[in-house]
Write a structure and sequence with these properties.
heterodimer; A: 340 residues; 2 strands; B: 303 residues; alpha/beta; Rossmann fold; 5-stranded mixed beta sheet; 14% strand
Chain lengths: 340, 303
């Protein structure tokens, strides 16, 4: 397939993202006429913010839908960018941000957060993102440490260690669930991923980590191209391979942990989006990274829209929808693998 | 005005006030509007300790949980309930009310309904309640852990909804029925051992700090899971057999399946055919029907 050029790709991706944001704000469990949507946004910008002045439409749009859509965009770009980093370092097309323990660590962290929430008071629930974030990063550190051989990261060992650590942490999490059945439903829903009930406070908390991760990924982009030539060649071309791999893995894990801490485990985004974008723009990470970020954001917003409008007032956990669309994609990818 | 007109005017005022006061003093449920006019604004502390001020009789009420829905309809404010959860199945009128979600609330729907009062349960819905408050909604939180909380809440909700007399009557009836059961229990010598099955696969029962446990105790029985470490313990069948319940209560309408289990065929309950199916809703919701459950439990334990 003919490779597309950088600028048009980025412009079109940004335009699609914007369109999806608009659709996302316009659709939901409640039917709001288009004119009211525009009026609400204008009123908000003019300063009519109070609950009594705002009316339900404005509150729904500005306090429920808009932050949620923005958060989905943030999580989508984080997961997709993290996926690019992981696929580059692991040089394995089946790699996604959760493969080295991020989701299992986040899940265990979340379960611990819920379990300790009694001791910490009701604000324990608000600590769940913090716990899951730390859990994700600690799990990644553990996997990374286990994969070191002669102080070099062996990619094969990394993947195996990831599987082993993930299983172990998941087992610990299951034990916690058995002990604390009252948390079970909350945790199960969290593990399936959701943007329900998220607001501007989540956006605020997530923003610095996302920014840090995306900037770091941007700085990595050129050198990811080097790494794609193979570790030895990259080394001879001047790349400090071990340091760089650690940096890339850390960036990917940070992005994935950020997404998971705020939305739960949403699979397949980090796996699919880099592949789809790579097919369109080629393997040059200087385009691949920003394009994946934009497309990932748009994709997750679209999934969230579907989650909200398929069976209102019930919201389908978004991880289910991405998994449903991911499996056919996975099979297609496996068939195509010969051409890799 | 001259003196004669002044006296006439004053007399008219006095008579009017007297009639109005007399009207508001009359019985259950009548004269809502008049009662309400004197009752508002009301400021009450909810069960989270928050001071909630209600300026006028709530006309658009949303309930976040089935027990609250039952309470609202029992208090006579059913027509003013505009939103309930998917689980709110009693009374039948509740099924026709707009749905706002289940354990996951749909905030858009809630806002669309423009409620003037939202009532939820504290411990389980704390996060959602905080979210609703941050969206500018008026939320009243109740907490029900023991049977005595039910009449207490009937009174509180009755007052804030403008049906104080109805609430008081409901509460008094509830309490007198509980007292009647307790009197009968005090005359019983036996305290049968009870196993209440919440779920069969895995075998789950009700432990301490649940309504079911309290009902068993109040009805003059002893819950074989009453000293478990958590409220919904998973039991092994061995433990059940070892503790030999005399009465088995099923909550999933699975009597046939339960009777077919060979493992516990030797327990007193199975041998004496004291296995009963009950409607789980009335046993687990802190609502007016909880006393129906108590009376049923008494009749099952002391036939």
């Amino acid at each position: 397939m003919k490779r597309l050029k950088t600028v048009p790709v980025l412009v079109v991706s940004a335009a699609i993202l914007l369109a999806v944001i608009i659709i996302g704000v316009g659709l939901g469990a409640v039917q709001i006429p288009a004119t009211d949507i525009i009026k609400s946004i204008i009123n908000y910008l003019r300063g009519f913010r109070g609950a009594d002045q705002a009316g339900p439409w404005q509150t729904i749009i500005m306090q429920i839908r808009l932050p949620r859509v923005i958060l989905a965009a943030m999580a989508g770009s984080a997961l997709a960018t993290g996926g690019v980093c992981f696929q580059a370092v692991l040089r394995n097309p089946l790699a996604d941000p959760f493969v080295i323990g991020v989701s299992a660590g986040a899940g265990l962290g979340a379960a611990l957060g819920l379990a300790l929430s009694e001791w910490l008071g009701s604000t324990g629930i608000a600590l769940l993102p913090v716990f899951s974030f730390l859990g994700a990063l600690l799990a990644t550190a553990l996997v990374y440490g286990l994969s070191l051989k002669n102080r070099r990261v062996d990619v094969g060992r990394l993947l195996l260690a990831g599987v082993a650590v993930s299983s172990f942490l998941t087992a610990l999490m299951s034990m916690l669930i058995v002990w604390r059945q009252q948390d079970m439903q909350k945790l199960v829903f969290w593990m399936m991923g959701s943007f329900s009930g998220r607001g501007w406070e989540h956006v605020q908390v997530t923003l610095p980590y996302l920014a840090a991760g995306l900037i770091s990924a941007g700085l990595l982009a050129g050198r990811l191209n080097l790494l794609a030539l193979g570790e030895e060649r990259a080394f001879y071309l001047g790349l400090r391979v071990e340091v760089f791999k650690a940096w890339a893995l850390l960036t990917g894990s940070l992005l994935a942990a950020t997404a998971v801490s705020v939305s739960g485990v949403i699979g397949f985004v980090g796996l699919m989006i880099p592949h789809i974008v790579r097919l369109l723009v080629g393997p040059d990470h200087l385009i691949l990274l920003p394009a994946s970020a934009l497309v990932g954001a748009a994709f997750l917003i679209a999934a969230d829209i579907a989650a909200r409008i398929i069976m209102p007032p019930i919201e389908i956990p978004i991880g289910i929808l991405t998994a449903l669309s991911g499996t056919p994609f996975f099979l297609w990818l496996l068939r195509k693998r010969g051409q890799y | 005005m001259n003196r004669k007109n002044l006296i006439t005017f004053l007399l008219t005022c006095v008579v009017t006030i007297a009639i109005v006061l007399a009207g508001s003093g009359s019985g259950a449920g009548a004269g809502n509007g008049v009662q309400a006019a004197f009752a508002y604004p009301i400021t009450m502390k909810d069960d989270l300790g928050r001071s909630v001020t209600i300026n006028a009789q709530p006309q658009r009420i949303i309930s976040l949980t089935p027990s609250v829905t039952e309470m609202l309809f029992a208090l006579g404010v059913g027509p003013r309930v505009v939103g309930v959860t998917n689980y709110c199945n009693y009374p039948a009128e509740a099924l026709a009310v707009a749905k706002i979600g289940d354990t996951n609330l749909n905030f858009e729907r809630i806002l669309e309904l423009q409620p003037d009062l939202i009532i939820g349960v504290g411990s389980m819905q704390a996060e959602d309640i905080n979210k609703l408050i941050s969206l500018g909604q008026k939320v009243f939180v109740i907490e029900a852990v023991k049977m005595v909380d039910v009449p207490r809440q009937m009174r509180i909700l009755g007052r804030i909804l403008g049906n104080a007399t109805v609430g008081e009557n409901l509460a008094a009836k509830f309490e007198s029925r509980v007292a009647a059961v307790q009197k009968k229990v005090s005359q019983q010598k036996a305290r049968p051992r009870v196993f209440i099955e919440i779920w069969n696969e895995p075998l789950m029962t009700a432990g301490p700090n649940t309504f079911m446990d309290e009902l068993i105790v109040l009805a003059g029985g002893s819950n074989i899971a009453g000293n478990s470490p958590n409220p919904w313990p998973q039991f092994s069948m061995e433990t059940v057999i070892e503790r030999d319940p005399e009465v088995i209560i099923l909550t999933c309408y699975n009597k046939e399946e339960a009777l077919s289990r060979k493992a516990w065929a030797g327990t007193s309950a199975i041998k004496n055919a004291r296995v009963y199916e009950v409607n789980p809703d009335i046993y687990s919701r802190p609502a007016p029907r909880l006393v129906d459950a108590l009376e049923e439990m008494y009749s099952l334990l002391h036939p």
